[in-house]
């Protein structure tokens, strides 16, 4: 898995595809997306962001270390980290998207825009996703995540663990629509499910979903409640 940070130096070592066809859009093969500079010991991606490759041991150490230090509040910390990351990445995404495609994100097809945003995450090992817009009229979006780096690493621990993803989605979409949104993981690979499922929407809807989830509702139950217009009293 790779994570990214802002570049500190101009990128001198670039992939062969980047050199021969810098306008290429299909650049997500490992050897195309990443550029390695042995002399500096750095890895940069196609968009000139610094990347750091981490192991599963790092993820385990991060999660277990936080839990040991702050207990159940570790999930809030991971969510907050993810949300801040999402906000900053949304700003950077707008820059490279408009430079690569020559048009504003406001003029782009929404699904194309979202897939373009997520492809670098897939290349970095964060997993594949599927965005379900069918419930937008009910004020929410469902996101299915396959092969979560966190859940895959921790295994079946009987509880949701992908809080950093929930924060990432909340931060990115909040910046995209210029409105405060929240996100919650409704089902997780680490709970024995085949994939992770997130609900994105207004904070009051997410609070309601969290309450129903704690009461034992499934992701499908919560989706039905939202479609029926159920609210907390």
Automatic annotation (TrEMBL):
InterPro entries: NO_sig/Golgi_transp_ligand-bd, V4R. It holds the Pfam family V4R. Residues 140-202 form the 4-vinyl reductase 4VR domain. PANTHER family: DNA-DIRECTED RNA POLYMERASE SUBUNIT I, SLR0144 PROTEIN. This is 4-vinyl reductase 4VR domain-containing protein. The lineage of its organism: Bacteria, Bacillati, Cyanobacteriota, Cyanophyceae, Oscillatoriophycideae.
């Amino acid at each position: 898995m790779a994570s990214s940070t802002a570049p500190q130096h101009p990128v001198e070592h670039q992939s062969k595809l980047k050199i021969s066809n810098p306008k290429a859009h299909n650049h997500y093969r490992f050897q195309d997306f990443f550029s390695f500079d042995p002399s500096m010991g750095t890895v940069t991606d196609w968009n000139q962001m610094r990347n750091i490759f981490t192991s599963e041991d790092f993820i385990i150490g991060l999660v277990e270390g936080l839990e040991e230090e702050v207990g159940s509040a570790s999930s809030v910390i991971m969510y907050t980290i993810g949300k801040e990351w999402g906000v900053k990445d949304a700003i950077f995404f707008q820059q490279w998207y408009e430079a690569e495609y020559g048009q504003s994100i406001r003029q782009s097809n929404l699904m194309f825009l979202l897939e373009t945003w997520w492809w670098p995450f897939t290349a970095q090992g964060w997993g594949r996703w599927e965005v379900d817009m069918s419930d937008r009229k009910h004020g929410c979006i469902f996101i299915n995540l396959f092969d979560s780096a966190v859940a895959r690493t921790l295994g079946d621990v009987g509880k949701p663990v992908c809080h950093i993803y929930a924060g990432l989605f909340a931060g990115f979409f909040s910046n995209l629509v210029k409105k405060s949104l929240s996100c919650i993981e409704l089902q997780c690979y680490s709970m024995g499910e085949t994939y992770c499922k997130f609900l994105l929407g207004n904070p009051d809807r997410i609070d309601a979903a969290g309450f129903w989830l704690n009461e034992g509702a499934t992701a499908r139950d919560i989706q039905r409640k939202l479609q029926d217009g159920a609210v907390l009293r």
